[in-house]
Description:
The structure is a single chain. Helix content is 6%, strand content 48%. By secondary structure, the chain is mainly beta. The radius of gyration is 35 Å and the shape is rod-shaped.
Amino acid sequence: MKSFRTILVVLFTCTVLSASFADTFRVRSVTTVTLDTQKPEWQTVKLGYNDSLGILFSEKTTFLKGVEIEIKIPQEIIEYQNSMAWGLYKKIIPKPLNTIIDYQGEQILLRPLPSRLTFVLQIPVKPKHSLKTGPYATVLPFTHNPEDGPLLFRLLPVMKGLPENIETLIFLTRIKPILTEEGALNLDVLYPEDNKQPVSIRIDEVLVTNPKVLQILSPGSHHVSIVADSYRNEVRIVTIESARITDLTIEMQDTAPQIMLIAPENAKIEINDIAVDSTREPRIMEPGSYSIRFTIGDYELVKQITVEKGKNYTVSLLIDINVSETP
């Protein structure tokens, strides 16, 4: 019997090292979880000795770097080394559901459970992921693209001789998304109606070639500038957070100068001898020199100003009461 056990282990090891292949299998039950980078918390499920975990991906995977799975092995299984294995599958048919137990998928890995109470697997989802195997986690040697569909993590017995209470043993399993360190800027540039002209957009002095896509940036403050001949230059400072999208809307302004007139309600205002109302909305002007006259009763004040392209002006009539002490 002892020699038979050794032969099984050797055959199993060969299977582990072989290439991926299509596999058809039945599980006792399936628990599904959906990974969302906006919800990075651990999700906990309870798996049995022949159960599976269906890993689904939401549409929000911009900041997803990988998937982390932590499995706690019951003490009773540790004594039965090489009796159970874990497998990972992709291209699952049908899509994992808790009401379906028969599946077909492409086997990525099949390995025996390690001889320890807890082990952690990390599955990269980006080619440049920076994840590294260490004493607390094993990075699997492949990259899964979430657009290729869900993954299936499976527990399964691989030889006889399991403990009598195997049906009731629980493998407490936790799963969470591993997030990237970067954040993103969603830049929306608005132009005057029917007057869209070329602009130059830079973030931290780097030219933005396609402002319509998310700009992936490191966490912290960033300098956004928009320069154009037909609009006023715009400058903003934005703060980027890790694994978050920051929205920034910039409305381009025409370079025609504007004048804001501020005066008491009973004041009469004239610009170049033409009467105007004293609303507090800015007036678009042509560049040049102007004579602005304020009149309140018998009090009159005239101010000469020159307005330039791309600048705003405020012209205010201030009336004050001066009190002084005389001897």
